[in-house]
Amino acid sequence: MITYDAFVIDEGGPQDRVSDLNCFWMAQDMEHPNDLFVNSEKRGGKFSNYDNLRLYYIGVGGHDNSKTRFRRYTGDGERPLLPEHDFTDKKYLIQPNKITKIKIIAYNGIIQYYRDGERIINFYDPNPYTSGHFGFRTVNNHMTIENFKVFSLKSEEIAK
Predict the structure, then answer these.
(1) Which terminus of the chain is more exposed, N or C, with fewer CB under 10 A?
(2) Does residue 138 fall inside a structural domain?
(3) Does residue 142 sit in helix, strand or coil?
């Protein structure tokens, strides 16, 4: 489980663009599974150059804060978008100048994304990714991240 507080700033500054509170987790480069950064220069920050990574990705407030989307990148260029993971309703977009509490769960095939206590993504992955890197991905915006924490989840055994 990963938790953090994000604050997207909109005060008229040069980078104060309300868009792209994005992150990914369980990321691996399948060509180099032990080193995510080998191809960093080749990727160069261009979004489509990340398609060959295997990861879970959520783009909150993408496309100038008009869409929120969750995808499971397969590591072979495929990044399918299920209709139930494509949101345009304002309640799923970024609210600037406000602390947004994020919680991400990846446990035993359960993939969940919460924002301010509301579950936005509830996905079951029968072949879950179980290790990899976490990262933020932003595009010309101004934000802060605070209280970043990573937890190891364990199931409780019920005594019989």
Answers:
(1) C
(2) yes
(3) coil
Angle CA(101)–CA(104)–CA(110) in degrees, nearest 5?
Answer: 145
CB 112 within 8 A of CB 121: yes
One pLDDT digit (tens) per residue for the chain, 160 residues: 999 999 999 999 988 999 999 999 999 998 888 888 888 888 777 777 788 899 999 999 999 999 999 999 999 988 889 999 999 999 999 999 999 999 999 999 999 999 999 999 999 999 999 999 999 988 888 999 999 999 998 876 544 4
* Interior/surface letters 96-108, b for 16+ CB within 10 angstroms, e for the rest: beeebebbbbbee
Tell me if 156 is assigned to some domain: no
Q: Is residue 158 situated within a structural domain?
A: no
Query: Which residues span the domain enclosing 113?
Result: 2-150
